[in-house]
C-alpha cells in the first residue's frame, strides 16, 4: 500500500503549540500538508500567553523540511476563528483540513460550577470549534472538499466526575461534528471526532507513570481521517496507547407496546427489555430513527399488535 500523502493540502491545527496538537501538526506536515499552527500559548486554564509556542512548532516543521505558519489568535471568539481561516487561505493557499484541538481545563463539579469558568471552557472547546469551523466549512463547500477532525474526550462521551463544563462542552463537540458530517456530505466534506488518551500537561497528574501514552500514538488516526482516501464520516473514535476504537451512540430495539395503554408499572416491568443491548441499531441521523420507528408501527398495526 502506498503511503498516505497530504501533499498539496492545507491543514489548520488549533492549540498546536504543545501536547497533542503539536504531535498532530508535525504528523500532518510529515505527510506533506502545509500547516497553520495556532496557539495562544496560555496556561492550562487558558490564562496568560507565551506567544512563542506556535512559532516554535512552526520552526520544528520547517527544520524537518515542511511548510507552516504560526497564528496566535484565540479560537474563543468568532473573529479569532475568521482570522485563523483567512490567514491559512492568504498565506498557505486554502483550507482542506481542520483539527479543532484547542482546549483548556477549569474543573468543577456540578454543585460548585463557577459560571465564568463554565463559559470560558465552553467558549474555547465548543464555541471555539464552531468559530473556526464555520468559515472553514464555507470555504470547503465552495471547493467541494474538506476534512474536519473534532477533538472530543471520554469525559464527553462517557462522563467524568468533576468535569461539568469540560464534559458538556466535549459532548457538544461530538454533536457538532455529527451535524457538520450530515450537512457536509453533499459538498464532499467529512467530519469525525477523535477522543485521545495521552500524557500531556492536561493529564500528567491523572495518569500512572508506567503507562506509555505518547501523544504520537494518536496522530496516525488524525492523518488518516484528514486524507482524501478516508471515506468515514460522522464517526467517533477513541485512540491512545496504540489502541484505536469506535465509540457509538446506539438505539436498543427496546420494548414495543400499544402506547395508548402503557402504564408506569409496565415500564418498570419491562426496563430490562428497554435497556437490553442484545439488539440495537446505530441511526445515521434523527430522520433515520423516525423512519425505523414508523416501520415498526406499520408492522405492529398490520399484525394487529401480535
Ligand atoms: N491529553 C489527553 O489525554 C486528552 C484526553 C481527552 C481530550 N483531550 C483534548 O485534546 C486537546 C489537546 O489537549 P492536550 O492534552 O494536548 O493539552 P494541552 O494543554 O497541551 O493543549 C491544549 C492547547 O490548546 C491551547 N489553547 C488553549 N486555549 C486556546 C485558545 N483560546 N485558542 C487557541 N489555542 C488555545 C493551549 O495553549 C494548549 O497548547 C484538548 O482539546 C483536550 O481537551 C486530551
From TrEMBL:
Sorted UniProt keywords: Oxidoreductase
Identify the InterPro entries for this entry. KR_dom, NAD(P)-bd_dom_sf, Peroxisomal_Beta-Oxidation, Sc_DH/Rdtase_CS, SDR_fam
Q: Give the source's domain of life in one word.
A: Bacteria
Positions of the Ketoreductase domain: 9-185
Asked whether the keyword Oxidoreductase is assigned, the reply is: yes
Oxidoreductase recorded as keyword: yes
Gene3D superfamilies in alphabetical order = NAD(P)-binding Rossmann-like Domain
Molecular function terms from GO: oxidoreductase activity
- Give the similarity note: Belongs to the short-chain dehydrogenases/reductases (SDR) family.
Protein name (database record): NAD(P)-dependent dehydrogenase (Short-subunit alcohol dehydrogenase family)
Amino acid at each position: 500500500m502506498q503511503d498516505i500523502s497530504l501533499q498539496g493540502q492545507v491543514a489548520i491545527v488549533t492549540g498546536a503549540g504543545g501536547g497533542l496538537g503539536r504531535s498532530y501538526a508535525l504528523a500532518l506536515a510529515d505527510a506533506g500538508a502545509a500547516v497553520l499552527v495556532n496557539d495562544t500559548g496560555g496556561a492550562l486554564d487558558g490564562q496568560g500567553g507565551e506567544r512563542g509556542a506556535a512559532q516554535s512548532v512552526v520552526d520544528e516543521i520547517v527544520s524537518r523540511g515542511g511548510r507552516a505558519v504560526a497564528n496566535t489568535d484565540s479560537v474563543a471568539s468568532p473573529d479569532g476563528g475568521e482570522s485563523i481561516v483567512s490567514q491559512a487561505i492568504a498565506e498557505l493557499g486554502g483550507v482542506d483540513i481542520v483539527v479543532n484541538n484547542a482546549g483548556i481545563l477549569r474543573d468543577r463539579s456540578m454543585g460548585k460550577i463557577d459560571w465564568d469558568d463554565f463559559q470560558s471552557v465552553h467558549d474555547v472547546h465548543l464555541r471555539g470549534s464552531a468559530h473556526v469551523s464555520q468559515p472553514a466549512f464555507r470555504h470547503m463547500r465552495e471547493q467541494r472538499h474538506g476534512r474536519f477532525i473534532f477533538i472530543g474526550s471520554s469525559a464527553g462521551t462517557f462522563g467524568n466526575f468533576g468535569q461539568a463544563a469540560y464534559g458538556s462542552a466535549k459532548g457538544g463537540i461530538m454533536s457538532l461534528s455529527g451535524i457538520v458530517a450530515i450537512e457536509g456530505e453533499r459538498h464532499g466534506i467529512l467530519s469525525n471526532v477523535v477522543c485521545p488518551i495521552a500524557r500531556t500537561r492536561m493529564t500528567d497528574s491523572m495518569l500512572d507513570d508506567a503507562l506509555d501514552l505518547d501523544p504520537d500514538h494518536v496522530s496516525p488516526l488524525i492523518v488518516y481521517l484528514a486524507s482524501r482516501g478516508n471515506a468515514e464520516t460522522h464517526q467517533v473514535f477513541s485512540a491512545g496507547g496504540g489502541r484505536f476504537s469506535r465509540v457509538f451512540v446506539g438505539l436498543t430495539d427496546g420494548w414495543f407496546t400499544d402506547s395508548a395503554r402503557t402504564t408506569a408499572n409496565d415500564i418498570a416491568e419491562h426496563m430490562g427489555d428497554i435497556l437490553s443491548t442484545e439488539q440495537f441499531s446505530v441511526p445515521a441521523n434523527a430522520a433515520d430513527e423516525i423512519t425505523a420507528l414508523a416501520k415498526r408501527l406499520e408492522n405492529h398495526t398490520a399484525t394487529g399488535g401480535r
